[in-house]
Structure formats: structure tokens, C-alpha cells
Amino acid sequence: MRAIWKGAVSFGLVNVPVRLYSATENHDVPFRQVHAEDGGRIKYQRVCSLDGEKVAYSDIAKGYETDEGQMVVLTDADLAELPLSTSKEIAVDRFVPAEQISPLVLDKVYYLEPDKAAIKPYALLRSALEESGRVAVVTVAIRTRVTVAVLRVHEDTLVLQTLLWPDEVREPDFAVLAEKSEVTDAEQAMAAMLVESLSGDFDPSAYEDEYEQAVKQLVEAKLAGGEVHEPEAEKEESAEVVDLLAALQASVDRAKKARGEAV
Predict the structure, then answer these.
(1) How far is 175 from 256, CA to CA, in rounded Å?
(2) Rounded to two decimals, what is the model's pTM?
(3) Who contacts 219 (Cβ-Cβ below 8 Å, separation ≥6)?
(4) 61-110: per-residue pLDDT in tens?
(5) Distances in whole angstroms, Cα of residue 144 to Cα of each of 84, 140, 195
(6) CB contact at 8 A, 124 and 158
């Protein structure tokens, strides 16, 4: 793993120098869009929706669309004036009961590794969290954006998990749930029996991504059967702007020459 952030956890007057590592990785099946006939990759052009012209990457800016559909263009100079944080501190605000943090607001998770000289205060914070049954609510700036997060213990490691902002969690507004539904004692007892019959400990290793395995087996079978496209090396596109009329004329001339006609 490679550290993506380096700073310190501060609680009270204690500072714990740490490095931040992503705790998870994505194993989604990586499909690409290709031409079905020859396997060539599909390319997309950056085209302006108003004038239909191709736009160079250097001419692309960030735009903020209002609720009314108006577009406000933000330049690099505009963005440079925003209050971005470069702080390298994970500041503990307070320690709260773990059950007060809803699973719905939990977002990205990171491991915290202490510097060699900070193992003792790291262990002190870890044991304090374990014994209290609480998590630490902190603020931290990751990639210049300040966010709220929690510190908790996973095995022997301190884990930082960012939280979603309140307006990022949707309300479950389902009118059907307001309707009354009477559950009989017999139904309740049978449901309890079902829960008991399926009870046990959670074992992550008992589950696997069957879809990913099936895709890999399908690909291997096609490779073994020779069902594979090996398109020619893609030619680099010229940076020169080619006149459409000239390109059409050249195509006509080439076709006539191939038929033995005078150009």
C-alpha cells in the first residue's frame, strides 16, 4: 500500500504522527466499449453542445449548473480563491458513543499507520477508544476538502472513516409505510423461528463474487477457442486541422485512381 496523506492526530495536547492508507480497493469487472466487428476501442470526442465544435482539453473549464438550468463558468482563478484547507491535522472534536453514528452516513475508510516514534501515543488512543466504547469525531482535510470523519479501532489498527454530510443522505419517503399492517402472534412467532434457524456468525470468506468468476471463466474459454480480436496498432491522430472538403476530395481522387480513372 502507498500512503496518500501524512499528518497527525491531535487530541488534547497529544499529537500522533500518522500516514493514511486506503483500506479498500475496487474489484469491479473492467469492461470496455468496443466495436463488435473487430474489437476496436470506441473513442469519444469532446464536442460543445451549442456549436458542435470539438473542444481542446485546454479550453475546458468547470461549470456549475443552477437549479434553473443556468450554467456558471468557473475559471482556475475563481477556484484558486476558494477557502481550501492544506492542514495536515486530524483534529479530535469529541468522543461519542459508537451507536450514535448511523451506518448510513459512513463513507470511505482509511487505515492509520503511526510513525515509529509515535507508537506509544497511538496505542494510548487505541486503548482509550476500545475501553470507552466510543469513537472519535474528527475533522480532516483530504485533497484540500475538509470533511467530518470518525476514528475507531479495527483489530490493532486505528481506522478513519469519512462521513457524508446530512444533506447527502436521502429521507425514506415511502407513503406505503404509513399504512397500518396487523401482524398476528402466530406470524410473529414463525418469523422469530425463521430468524433463529438462520442465525450464526458472519464469515466474509463464505461469500465470493460469482459474477466476476463467471466473467473470467467466459473470457478464458473464448481465448482458448481463439475468439479474440487483435486490432492493428492505432494510429496517432494528427494535431493538424483537416478541411472537410479537402478530405472528401482526396477520398474521391483515391477511389477514381483505384478504378483506373483519370483524376
Answers:
(1) 70
(2) 0.69
(3) none
(4) 899 899 888 899 888 888 777 776 677 899 999 999 999 999 999 999 99
(5) 5, 9, 46
(6) no
